[in-house]
Specification:
CATH superfamily of the largest domain: P-loop containing nucleotide triphosphate hydrolases
CATH class of the largest domain: Alpha Beta
Distance between the termini: 48 Å
Low-confidence stretches: 1-5
Number of helices: 12
Strand order of the largest sheet: 6-7-8-3-9-10
CATH architecture of the largest domain: 3-Layer(aba) Sandwich
Radius of gyration: 24 Å
Helix content: 25-40%
Bound molecules: adenosine-5'-diphosphate, magnesium ion
């Protein structure tokens, strides 16, 4: 266990100027990115953004057209075999065998990775405990519930104790309860020291789960940072001010004239003000007071990652 985790964090995945073309279609356009050891990294973007293309390159299933990727210092093209031994890949389709039991599946995947029989036993015990599958050890995979199948799919990718676990849209098709359970599982695996790379097109999922996020769009990097950083960059927030008696007509004009007020709408609930950036609230409150309006309540809405995506997508492509 490292005591100075924050300061000693180093990249475990280094993506350097990676492009990928299919014919004359550019699916990835000069992507560079470092992913720090021990983190949960979310690769976020709408369908067709290039998430799977990037994941496939990282997991040695496809080669970059140009650029390089290193995992733990190993080149995914020239050191493919070594890379495969330190990564675990959870594919979208379940990779286990329905007719085998849970334990047999783990034994099979372990032997595939060259794990010794004794280590498979030890690991199986730990993984099944961690993923709450111990009771199902001797059950056929086909008899498991949906949530358990998802966990078994992850378990199979963990049997060789990978440093990095890569999951491509693992929550697609899961109901909300199973999705939450999946997030808990991912956090648990991460807390054991495994770096997690997860792709998703659910903004809320990336927000809740990831330490850092990369938003992709049409093969390009839109923005990268912690969820908080990304939301702060956008800076836009909406505040709803309720006052009495609620006759805001004059105020609306004055407020709308403030530098960072994007819009000011008189709604049924109150005055809805959209701010472009960190407009000090004092100025807004002053205007209310000078208009003899008594503020009853101020509600403030932080931007979501959805806002971040829309903000940057508009900036770049419209
Ligand atoms: P995502 O996973 O973000 O939904 P993908 O990486 O699967 O996106 O795809 C990115 C783009 O590249 C899409 O427009 C897709 O049609 C295209 N693409 C992916 N794989 C291939 C391929 N083997 N041949 C041609 N085009 C591809
Ligand atoms: Mg995909």
């Amino acid at each position: 266990m490292e005591s100075t985790m924050e300061s000693t964090r180093e990249p475990i995945i280094e993506i350097q100027s990676v492009s990928k073309t299919f014919g004359d279609f550019k699916a990835l356009n000069n992507i560079s990115l470092d992913i720090e050891k021990g983190t949960i990294f979310g690769l976020l973007g709408p369908n067709g953004a290039g998430k799977s293309t990037l994941i496939n390159i990282l997991s040695c299933q496809n080669r970059p057209s140009s650029g390089s990727v290193y995992i733990s210092g190993l080149d995914v093209v020239s050191d493919k075999k070594d890379v495969l031994s330190i990564i675990g890949v959870v594919p979208q389709e379940n990779s286990f065998y329905d007719e085998l039991t849970v334990a047999e599946n783990l034994r099979y995947f372990g032997s595939l990775y060259g794990v010794t029989v004794i280590d498979i036993k030890k690991r199986t015990h730990r993984i099944l405990e961690m993923l709450q599958l111990t009771e199902k050890k001797s059950s056929r995979a086909s008899t498991l519930s949906g949530g358990m199948k998802t966990r078994l799919n992850i378990a199979c990718a963990l049997i060789h104790k990978p440093e990095v676990l890569i999951l491509d849209e693992p929550s697609v098709g899961l109901d909300p309860v199973s999705r939450k359970a999946l997030w808990d599982t991912i956090r648990k695996v991460n807390s054991e020291g495994t770096t997690i790379l997860i792709t998703t097109h659910y903004m809320d999922e990336a927000d809740l789960l990831s330490d850092r996020i990369l938003i992709m769009h049409r093969g390009n990097i839109v923005v990268e940072g912690t969820p908080e950083e990304l939301k702060n960059t956008v800076g836009e927030r909406v505040i709803l001010i309720t006052s009495t008696p609620g006759n805001y007509h004059d105020l609306t004009e004055q407020l709308g004239a403030l530098e960072n007020v994007a819009s000011c709408l008189d709604s049924e609930k109150g005055l809805k003000i959209t701010l472009n950036s960190k407009q000090p609230l004092e100025q807004i409150i002053d205007i209310f007071e000078s208009g003899n309006e008594h503020i009853i309540n101020i509600e403030s809405n932080r931007p979501s990652l959805e806002n971040v995506f829309i903000h940057f997508a508009q900036e770049e492509w419209h």
